[in-house]
Amino acid sequence: MRMLLYCLKRQEDAGFDEFNGASFTGAVFNLSTTIVGAGIMALPATMKVLGLVLGVALIIFMAFLTEASIELLLRFSRAGKSASYGGLMGDAFGKTGRILLQVAVLINNIGVLIVYMIIIGDVLSGTSSSGAHHAGVLEGWFGEHWWNARAFVLLITTLFVFSPLACFKRIDSLSYTSALSVALAVVFLVITVGITIVKLINGSIAMPRLMPDVTDLTSFWKLFTTVPVLVTAFICHYNVHSIDNELEDSTQIKPVVRTALALCSSVYIMTSIFGFLLFGDGTLDDVLANFDMDLGIPYSSLLNDAVRVSYAAHLMLVFPIVFFPLRLNLDGLLFPSARPFHQANMRFALITIGPYRYNLLGCKFHSKHLGCFPIHWSNCCSLSWFHFSGFPYSQVSSSLAFAVSAIILFFS
Predict the structure, then answer these.
(1) Could you give the 3-state DSSP secondary structure of residue 328?
(2) What is the pTM for the complete model shown?
(3) DSSP assignment, residue 20?
(4) Helices H, strands E: what count in the chain?
(5) Which of 69, 116, 204, 293 could form a disulfide with 389 if both were Cys (CB 3.0 to 4.6 A apart)?
(6) Rg of the chain over CA atoms, in angstroms?
(7) 3-class SS at 133?
């Protein structure tokens, strides 16, 4: 607590109120990091179900659908002079609408952050399931010790990575770590592409499936299991207002959104294609698990570790960008009439520390009792973002709102 308050005081001394606005590049990286989270690892498996042609087409479609939903958010935020997602829902549906949105953000983001901590623990410290133990990177390098156990690794990560980044009161302050996070996602992509090219030259990769293999009703319904992955892959709505509010030129928000979506779509498409090419029908639901075995090329173990470490580091840097709206909406839910929390250090510190403690406890509880519950919990809440973004429009144009909602409901 004292360290956090000290960091906040240093920010004030450095001139928090003298901020001149976020840059276009910083905003793009922050929005891109909001989009590219853990879901990237599930995309190659969607290609196994949908085939490359349909899979890539749906990724592009979801990018356009995300842009349309953000366009609705921004249009009606400007009209109602709303500075936040919760404020927009409050203008459209009153106090109940605002509270529902804020609770949805809390549920979604807490679930996402718990999942991130579990993945980081699995990658670095290993995991055991069905009587089999899968060694983590640290365990593989140094053997099994108390200091590379899951609980200790997550505690150190929280204290020395998450907590310092949580001290920042502006989302633009995370732009450099967001840029590094995107770079780490590109590292994974580059390694995957390189391995795939080597194996293509060796002739050890078969022709991938271009279209879905639908032979019966069961295989037809299986196509819809890819919908949650594709929808949640582009969730970023809860950070759009924060990024918009800090831009030096607020008219740049639309180009920021389009640039971020283009960047993320490119990474998604390349990851999906080359991940599926590399592992074919052996592609697992989480392609990271495929990098826990022999790749059939020289330096396979080194490449596997590089992929896993870069992915764990990527999630560590995504964590604060997802935590930012969690803290913002928790403050709005508990203290709706108080002054902005960046002007009240003690409240800011308490709102920051509370969720961190909950995430640590939730991560420990999950690993023993809940199975994949937070993943489904988070997915169900994420599907609601497209509905929330279209709700204000239903107050104006019922016919177009019905058409948009019909499309969204079909994919939900």
Answers:
(1) helix
(2) 0.87
(3) -
(4) 18, 2
(5) 69
(6) 22
(7) strand
Quick one: which of 22, 40, 26, 37 has its CA closest to 178? Answer: 26
Q: Identify the DSSP state of 22.
A: B
What type of residue is 175?
A: S
- The one-letter code for the residue type at 318 is V
Contact criterion met (CB below 8 Å) for 167 and 346 = no
Q: Name the token pair of 13.
A: 């001394």
Contacts 24+ apart (CB under 8 A), 251-254: 252/24, 252/27, 253/27, 253/74, 254/71, 254/74
Residues 6+ apart with CB under 8 A from 115: 38, 374, 375, 378
Q: Give the rounded distance of the alpha carbon of 242 from its chain centre.
A: 16
Return the structure tokens found at 334.
Answer: 């508990």
Q: How many residues does the chain have?
A: 412
Q: How does DSSP classify residue 203?
A: T
Going by C-alpha positions, the residue among 181, 167, 329 that lies closest to residue 241 is 329
Show the tokens assigned to 177: 């770590």
Per-residue pLDDT tens, the chain, 412 aa: give them. Answer: 555 544 555 555 454 455 668 899 999 999 999 999 878 888 999 999 999 999 999 999 999 999 998 998 899 888 888 888 888 888 888 888 889 889 888 888 888 888 898 889 889 988 766 666 677 888 888 888 888 888 899 889 988 999 889 888 899 999 999 999 999 999 999 999 999 999 998 888 888 888 888 888 888 888 888 888 888 889 899 999 999 999 988 889 999 999 999 999 999 999 999 999 999 888 888 888 888 888 888 888 999 999 999 999 999 999 999 999 999 999 889 888 877 777 777 888 888 887 777 676 666 655 544 444 444 455 555 555 555 665 565 555 545 554 554 554 444 4
| 177/30 Cα distance (integer angstroms) | 9
What letter would DSSP give residue 214? -
Q: Which of 102, 75, 49, 72 is nearest to 208 (CA)?
A: 49
Residue with tokens 């592409």: 193
Copy the structure tokens of residue 43.
Answer: 């995309």
Closest of 269, 216, 282, 207 to residue 62, by C-alpha: 269
Please give the Cα distance from 354 to 346 (Å, whole number).
12
User: Positive or negative CA dihedral for 25, 272, 68, 92?
Assistant: negative
Helices 237-246 and 253-279: angle between axes, nearest 10 degrees? 140
CA distances from residue 408 to 49, 85, 199, 301, 394 in whole angstroms, order as listed = 21, 19, 39, 43, 14
Q: How far is CA 83 from the centre of its chain?
A: 22
d(CA 225, CA 232): 12
